[in-house]
Amino acid sequence: MVSAPPEPAPEIKPEAPAQGDKESPALSDKTELSDFIEAAGLLSYDPAAITRIYAGHPQRLIRRLWQTLVPIGLYLLGVWFDWFTGLLKGPDRARARAKEAADLIASLGPAFIKAGQALSTRPDIVPPLLLEELAQLQDQLPGFDSALAMACIEDDLGAPVLEIYEQLDAEPISAASLGQVHKGVLKGGQVVAVKVQRPGLREQITLDLYIVRNIAAWLNQNVGLIRSDLVALIDELGKRVFEEMDYCNEAANAERFAALHTHNPRIAVPRIYHQATSRRVLTMEWIEGVKLTNLEAVRGIGVDPDEMVNIGVNCSLQQLLEHGFFHADPHPGNLLALSDGRLAYLDFGMMSEVSRESRTGLIQAVVHLVNRNFGKLSKDFVSLGFLAEDVNLEPIVPAFEKVFGQAIEQGVSRMDFKAVTDDLSGVMYRFPFRVPPYYALIIRSLVTLEGIALSVDSEFKILGAAYPYFARRLMEDPDPSLRQSLKEMLFDGDIFRWQRLDNLIASASQGSQLDLEGLLDQVLTFLFSANGGLLRQQLVEAVVFRMDAMAWHTTLRIGKRLPERLQPPGLRKHRLSDANEPLLDIEPVRQLTGILQALPGFEPQMLMRRLPRLLGEPQLRQMGVQLARGLAERSVVRLVRDVLVSA
Question: Could you tell me the pTM of the whole model?
Answer without folding.
Answer: 0.70
